[in-house]
Amino acid sequence: MPRRKPPASSQDRRSAPLGDVFGRTESGPDRDETYIVRSIPGSRAVKTYRCPGCDHEIPPGVAHIVAWQADGGEDDRRHWHRGCWNGRRTRRITRRWS
To answer: With left for phi above 0 and alpha for psi between -120 and 50, is residue 55 left, alpha or beta?
Structure first.
């Protein structure tokens, strides 16, 4: 008889909503700031954005990251390529915004 995987208990499930709707916190490009980070699936990406990490466009339909400062910076959201956000500590930001 084949073995079966035991059912996951309710304690093993993550409390974060599916697709990190409310975001998660991570350190920012300068390491001294806390950012709220949210993943945007390709199906919800409907506009063209410019990534501050590489200064290239993120076309509609491409999954990416949205990040903003945790201390009231939601109006200053920035859309990043996933790779650029993951490499934010190893290179400088290409584009500075006002």
So the answer is: left
Distance (Å, rounded) from C-alpha 57 to C-alpha 82?
Answer: 13
Two structure tokens written together for 39: 């993943």
Which residues touch 11 (CB under 8 Å, ≥6 apart)? Answer: none
Q: What is the pLDDT of residues 30-49, one digit of tens each?
A: 778 899 999 999 999 999 99
- Residue 9: per-residue pLDDT: 57
Cβ burial of 92 (10 Å; 0-12, 13-18, 19+) is exposed
